[in-house]
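Lab manual, section 2.4: Encoding a predicted structure.

Procedure: take the sequence of the chain (377 residues), apply the prediction step described in section 2.3, and record the output as structure tokens. A sample record is shown.
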Amino acid sequence: MTKGLLSIFLCFFSIAYGQYCTSNVGPTSTVDSNVELVQIAGAAGNINFIGCPAVIGVQDLTTLSVALNAGGSYVLNVKFGTCGGNYAGAGEAWIDFDQNGNFDSYESIGTWTGTPPVAISAFNFTVPANAQNGTSRMRVMQREAGSLPLNPCGTYTWGSVMDFGITIGNGIDCTGFIGDDVNDPINITALPFTDSRDNSICYSNNNYVYPSPDIYYKFTPNPLIHSVHASLCGASFDTFLSVVDLNGNVIAFNDDVVECGSQSALTFETAGLGSVYIIVEGWGSEMGNYTLTLNADYVGLEEEQSAIIRVFPNPSNGSVRLNQSIGIATLYHVNGTELASFDTDESLHIDLNNFQAGSYFLRSFDGQVSQQIILVK
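Recorded output:
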């Protein structure tokens, strides 16, 4: 669903993979507003923490930990209070269920607004069935003069931020799933390429265009490729597709495409590009099954080149001959692998008998002339 996305995407696109925000986060003063109590009973263990005296910044209490089971329901009790004077503010708590190192908006388990003294707030929540097994964090924040929703990485003057340990069990074992972030992308080694996945399982949100889970592919175009066409047509959900370089600069993106409705497809030129990330995600929070297909258009002869250079016979079962010299010529496999070089000033005959049947490119040293050769054996 296209929503005037261009300016938003260019302004807010980022690649981020989680290390919990702990520097320059939270209060800069120890007076007044502060969380006074945090209590939770888990499937194993419990937390019963009493606040005050206050702490500047993030209070690391991850040694206080409980175990929670995916699908289980629990109650987090928080008393938003003060270590001094009483002032209005807001409070919120998050658990990083997908363990991406971020406290995302969809991981908020409770909110509060008011002026202390107030009764204990009871946040009833259920751990998502698709939560990932392993060690995670719960963050509880109070911000004097704040408003909802709170920024879990925000800096302010009065209040508190506390991190507790969470261990999730009975969820999904994501061992072996790759592509969740830029540190572990799915590597594309050759085109054409096809890959089918479900981004609702074991994938989290590391690309902040939309809050949906995203999957990262890494591709390095070879010099014989002119452009690449990527398609998510046929996906079970409304998709969003983007291509960025390793610095996060946007190369191409698409939300909806005429050829497949609410699914995405795009073509990007590869001249001058190094490695890129191709990122699959959903519009909004959508997720589901998809198949990503990639196809390449290869560099070929321009019309004026075809009048200059000829390779014959083509297809060939072994050797070919040029109609004129193009200097040092390099033979590439269609996958971009450089195989051999020939000096066509010395001989117009090129022996390809040692190469297997397949598609190859013969390219001049300056790259101005390129000719595809088909070997059949």
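Check your result against the sample. The CA atoms of residues 99 and 136 lie 6 Å apart.
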